[in-house]
């Protein structure tokens, strides 16, 4: 039986691929990494700068315009009347102090609740329990904001489960008002406080805790002298979320706040029913100035690096 002749592969010439526009563009991008990076960042930067920042700046510029009292149209004449009204008006001062008080109360409650939970997740729980607790903390975020707010409205009502539980003890539900607002906002923003503190506590070396115990440090001494100083930037990072989100919220106040108002409600009212966008923009400047002041205050703590 004869063997078939072998083909000489050296004589086979593979034709080059056709030089299509897509192939030429691919070849160009493969040799120009900066162009490739610029094209990748164009869409997200356009969204961030044009759609978000520029739109917000344009809205805030309207704070220096005014509304014609006769026609109701916005007049683009530069004036400080809205700023002066917001700064000197007794109503706006009262609502600003109320909003600031609610934001501080919510932040303190959330930190007090988040610290032991985050410490248990980071330093005590087994890896399996850690995963379970992380999912448990994230689970409320998967539900609608309105569903959670209306759930608390049901809980805090006179016919709700809280009244049913407290009545045998001679106590009663706080009903709708500032207390209900603080409770609901504390519940809504708690996951945003737990997660940064948990991430910060995970970075605390276990060897430091063991060294403290070896030197005779009790539990509270170790927590106060070792854990809290190292976790302080993470705690401040968590407070940024609860504080800033509480300053701008208005939906929860509408649902469980009763007759109380916060800055967000004033913005919503002036944009909608009052049709006074310049005054609404001037009111919106208040929480923005407060949160920028807070960020400047905590910048040296390293909290911004933990976000």
UniProtKB/TrEMBL annotation:
Entry's localization field: Cell membrane
Ranges annotated as spanning the membrane: 37-65, 100-120, 132-155, 175-201, 222-243, 277-297
Record InterPro entries: MetI-like, MetI-like_sf
SUPFAM superfamilies, per database record: MetI-like
Any Pfam family: BPD_transp_1
Residues of the ABC transmembrane type-1 domain: 96-298
Signal peptide: none
Residue numbers spanned by region Disordered: 1-24
Protein name: Spermidine/putrescine ABC transporter permease
